[in-house]
Every structure is written in structure tokens, then in C-alpha cells.
Write a structure and sequence with these properties.
The protein is α/β, with parallel strands linked by helices and 249 residues long. It has ten helices and eight strands. Helix 5 (107-119) crosses helix 7. Bound molecules: 2-phosphoglycolic acid.
Length: 249
């Protein structure tokens, strides 16, 4: 399994700014080791422009941060997996905590997005993670299992080779408060055990990424932990310098 180094640019960068950063990133990652894959999740409006400039950053795959689970139709404000692919995206995020909390996306909708996007040919990173009150109540395991169960409910296992989970504790996202090694190990073990149970014997093939205040100075330690197969980076992914340092950590 390749190590996945993923950047979530959220609502930052125009098309032009995205191409500049991606080109800089492409230069810095020209000797990316074979066993690593870099994906940048750009805003919808930057995707086509970035897709057309792909030759300048061959080491980087492009993704979108969200999609709607239908081929086309009367879904104002949404875009389909086919549109993402046509624009040059090969991956999509599902269930980021900001989608869950700010846009009230349900476990059910996230499951539909995950299954539909995989079927439509995209790779999917399904994001899961507990809030601080949930953790303090001792609900870490039930919350992660509920999100995974719903997220994977309709997924055909043939698509597992282009599926990954990102564990992102809500209290560590954008807060500068990174989960400690013990917390990461515990949560990733819960996720791994769930995947092993669900996919009898194949759960070990699924990448589990950590996300939440990953920076160049903590990435190496995090990537060295058991059951950590990559990272999903927000703030520190916006500059090519810091994200390339993480991708090469
Ligand atoms: P952060 O964001 O690295 O800025 O904490 C992570 C994410 O939201 O994916």
C-alpha cells in the first residue's frame, strides 16, 4: 500500500493561485519516492484549470472536496463525480467534519456519496472523527464505528483499492492541537479492527490517514505510527514549502 499524502485546500485559492502552488509543489516533489502518493483536494473552481496544467506537476493527483451522488439533474449548487473526472480530478473527499457540522451532512448522505463516487470511478477518502464532547463521554469507538458503518454501507468491496479512511478528531482540526501518538494509535486501531471485521481479511489493505493539525515538524512521527498509512493536511498544505516537507517526511 502506498503512503497517501493528501492536502485539503478547503475554501482557499483561485484557479490561478492553485496552479502556481501546484507547479511549485511539482518541482519540490520531482523525486517523490515510488511508495508515496500525493493528492491535492482543490476548490471546485480551481479543478479544471489545475487539470489542464497537470503536466507541470506529474507527481500530484487532483481531487475535489465534495460531490453529489447523482449523474446529473436538478441539484442546484452541486457537482457530480463525472464532472470532477472530466475536469481532471481522480479523487474526492466524503464526510469531512466541516461538511458534517456546517452543512448538516448526515451519515446516510455521506454513505451515498462514498458508494456513488467509487462506482463513478473516483478514489474516495471517507473522513471520520469524534467531537470533543463525544470523546469526553467515552464515545470514541461507537462514534467511529457508526460513521464507518454508514459510510461504507453501500460500497462494493471491488472498489476498496481506491478507498481510504481519514481519522480526523474534530477537536484537532484547524486548532493547532494535534492528537498525541496514544490517541492516534487507539483510534486507528479501532478503525482497523472495524475494517478487518467488515472485510474479512482485506481490512489491512485499506489506508488509514490521520488528519488534524499535521505540520512539517510532527508529520514524521505521525507517519511512523502503527496503522497510519498517510496524512490529510489542511492549513499546512496551503504552501508548497510546508506541504512538500510533510510529503517527504
Ligand atoms: P488542519 O485541517 O490540518 O488545518 O487541522 C485538517 C483537515 O481539515 O483536513
Amino acid at each position: 500500500m502506498k503512503l497517501l499524502l493528501a492536502a485539503n485546500w478547503k475554501m482557499y485559492k483561485t484557479g490561478e493561485e492553485a496552479v502556481l502552488t501546484l507547479t511549485d509543489l511539482g518541482r519540490r516533489l520531482s523525486s517523490l519516492p515510488e511508495d508515496r502518493q500525493v493528492i491535492v483536494f482543490v476548490p471546485f473552481t480551481a479543478l479544471a484549470q489545475a487539470g489542464q496544467a497537470r503536466a507541470a506537476f506529474p507527481a500530484v493527483s487532483l481531487g475535489a472536496q465534495n460531490c453529489y451522488p447523482a449523474e446529473e439533474g436538478a441539484f442546484t449548487g452541486e457537482i457530480s463525480p463525472a464532472m470532477i473526472r472530466a475536469a481532471g480530478g481522480t479523487w474526492v473527499l466524503a464526510g469531512h467534519s466541516e461538511r458534517r457540522s456546517l452543512f448538516q451532512e448526515s451519515d446516510l448522505l455521506i454513505g451515498r456519496k462514498t458508494a456513488f463516487a467509487l462506482k463513478a470511478g473516483l478514489g474516495v477518502i471517507l473522513c471520520v472523527g469524534e467531537s470533543l464532547p463525544e470523546r469526553e463521554r467515552g464515545d470514541l469507538q461507537p462514534v467511529l464505528e457508526r460513521q464507518l458503518e454508514a459510510g461504507l454501507a453501500a460500497v462494493d468491496p471491488v472498489f476498496l483499492p481506491r478507498f481510504a479512511v481519514a481519522y480526523e478528531p474534530v477537536w484537532a482540526i484547524g486548532t493547532g492541537r494535534v492528537a498525541g501518538p496514544a490517541e492516534i494509535l487507539e483510534s486507528h486501531a479501532v478503525i482497523r479492527a472495524f475494517l478487518e471485521r467488515k472485510y474479512a481479511g482485506r481490512g489491512g489493505e485499506i489506508g488509514i490517514l490521520y488528519g488534524g493539525s499535521v505540520k512539517p515538524d510532527n508529520a514524521g512521527t505521525i507517519l511512523g505510527l502503527d496503522n497510519v498509512n498517510g496524512v490529510l493536511v489542511g492549513g499546512a498544505s496551503l504552501q508548497a514549502e510546508s506541504f512538500s516537507a510533510i510529503a517527504l517526511a
